[in-house]
Amino acid sequence: MTNTSNTTSDAVTAASAAFEAEFGRAADGVWSAPGRVNLIGEHTDYNEGFVLPFAIDRRTWAALGLRQDARARVTSTFSPEHVEIELRDVSPESLDSWSAYPLGIAWALGENGVDLDSKPGFDVHIHSDVPVGAGLSSSAAIECAVAVALDDSWQLGLDRPTLAKVGQLAENKAVGAPTGIMDQSASLLGRRDSAVFLDCRTLRSDVIDLGFAAADLQIVVIDTKVSHSHATGGYAARRASCEAGAAALGVESLRDVAVDDLDRARGLMDDETFRRVRHVVTENARVLATVRALRESGPLAIGELLDESHVSMRDDFEISVPELDLAVVTAREAGAIGARMTGGGFGGAAIALTPSHLVGAVTARVTDAFAAAGFTAPEVFVVTPSDGAKREL
Ligand code: GLA
After folding, report:
1. Which end of the chain has fewer surrounding CB within 10 Å, N or C?
2. Which residues line ligand 1 (CB under 6 A)?
3. pTM metric for this prediction
4. C-alpha angle 187/12/385, rounded to 5°?
5. pLDDT digits over 165-200, tens only?
6. Which domains, from first to last, does the chain contain?
């Protein structure tokens, strides 16, 4: 078993040592932010609906020190690239590669009313153990670690929902991925043993006790290694279909459509758009049902909702891939009580809610099934619902 507290303090030490090696002085502090798993509520965030993600025990650490001048310098343990730029020159046009995530935050804070001309520059070193491309929001983890680091260092006093919007703006404009508000909200608002129930219209959130430990359940992540990018292709197409469906129904967003409206909706749009709409509308209902089940009965009662969510994403929203479907089916056969793909889709990871004593069996069966199908070996690991972004040092 990994000792999380040791791992965390090792990472904090590593991040500050790397900062010193890169910049020749001690950092002012180290901040961290987690990746996330979405328990349920997929492609509902940009439809102003409901989501239920949780922060995981895989984090990104940002060691940051303010400067005397107005330059920003960024380094990381995962890329040899060193980026250096005047704060006033930071803009979506001037940023590319991975530095668009941390520097995009500085730009987005400026868009949010922070007077960048009056702020000192900074050096920041980023260190992360959130797997990249697995659908666990490694990008939101970088954004949120830098967002809390700058919020503290520049003494901005912004609240977490505002920082989530800043992160989303950086992702949308600086990185160029038309994503919603879920990932940054989970990373900033997560709590140990809990999920974040977020209303993406009002941005009101509630912490929901997951009770996994008491029920002897674990969340197994199956990273299919099929890579996805939300800056291109399918994700934007799904968003466009949802907007078309809302327009056909004469509503501002699909949040305003109830399951009972679906019969009427069928006649107002083509079949493909209808199925996209049906996924979002039923998924919103499943999030509410999951929250109710967790509150009233505990996590053993949510398996079927996870399964239904996967079927809806596979058949109606069409964002699954054969590797995700195999992961889900095999995990269920090996004893998981519910399983679904998580995140934006077209690759990435599936999650399986699994009795603790069956984690080994699920891991072995899924690994064997991938080998038999000729798929790339998956990476299978357990994640624990953890605290959101915070100052570490
Ligand atoms: C990605 C996006 C999120 C959300 C999910 C799908 O993770 O970043 O905003 O839309 O896909 O639920």
Report:
1. N
2. 38, 42-43, 45-46, 179-180, 182-183, 230, 343-344
3. 0.96
4. 35
5. 999 999 999 999 999 999 999 999 999 999 999 999
6. 4-209 (3.30.230.10), 217-383 (3.30.70.890)
